[in-house]
Amino acid sequence: MDIDVVDAPDHHRFEARTDDGSLAGVAAYRIDGGQLVFTHTEVDDAYEGEGVGSQLVRSVLDQLRGRETSVRSECSFINSWVEKHPEYQTVVSS
């Protein structure tokens, strides 16, 4: 499944949307002293097991890699994903 991931700063989250615009998942964050802190990642039940969470995290971290933003995660899903993908350990700290 292909998804588009966009930042929705008014809602303090990145959104994963399907081709028809349905919301498939979110990665919520807060800004703390200029640092972006991920707090929670959630995938809609209808898309569980389809790799949406992984696509969401990969896309978000790829987008943030090019920014001069410090990124930290308090989200267990993101932390677990980064452990399995060490090439992203320089993008986010836990």
Write the layout of secondary structure elements.
Layout lengths: L3 E5 L4 E5 L5 E10 L2 E9 L8 H14 L5 E3 L2 H9 L10
Parallel strand pairs: 4-5
Antiparallel strand pairs: 1-2, 2-3, 3-4
Describe the fold and architecture.
24% of the residues lie in helices and 34% in strands. The protein is built from two helices and five strands. The protein has helices at 52-65, 76-84, and strands at residues 4-8, 13-17, 23-32, 35-43, 71-73. It has a five-stranded mixed sheet with strand order 1-2-3-4-5. The chain is globular, with a radius of gyration of 12 Å. It starts with a strand and ends in a 10-residue tail after the last helix.
Helix content: 10-25%
Sketch the topology as an H/E string, one letter per element.
EEEEHEH
Write down the overall geometry.
Answer: globular
Spatially, the strands of the biggest sheet line up as: 1-2-3-4-5
Question: How many structural domains in the coordinates?
Answer: 1
CATH superfamily: Gcn5-related N-acetyltransferase (GNAT)
Number of helices: 2
**CATH class type:** Alpha Beta
**Remind me, CATH topology?**
Aminopeptidase
Number of strands: 5
Which structural class do the helices and strands define? alpha+beta
Beta-strand content bin: 25-35%
What CATH architecture do you see?
3-Layer(aba) Sandwich
